[in-house]
Amino acid sequence: MAHLRSLILLLSISLWSLPALSQFCESVNGYCDSENMLASSKILIKGGTVVNADHQEVADVYVEDGIIVAVRPNIKVPDGVRVLDATGRLVMPGGIDPHTHLAMEFMGTETIDNFFSGQAAALAGGTTMHIDFVIPVNGSLSKGYEAYVEKAKLSCMDYGFHMAITKWDDIVPKEMETMVEKGINSFKFFMAYKGSLMISDELLLEGLKKCKSLGALAMVHAENGDAVFEGQKRMIQLGITGPEGHALSRPPVLEAEATARAIRLAAFVNAPLYVVHVMSSDAMEEIARAQKSGQNVIGEPVVSGLVLDDSVLWNPDFITAAKFVMSPPIRAAGHGKALQAALSTGILKLVGTDHCTFNSKQKSLGIDDFRKIPNGVNGIEERMHLVWDTMVESGQISATDYVRVTSTECAKLFNIYPRKGAIRVGSDADIIIFNPNSTFHISAHSHHSRSDTNVYEGRSGKGKVEVTISGGRIVWENEELNVVPGSGNYVSMPPFNYLYHGIDKADQNYLASLKAPVNRIKQSL
Question: What is the annotated signal peptide range for this record (predicted)?
Answer without folding.
Answer: 1-22
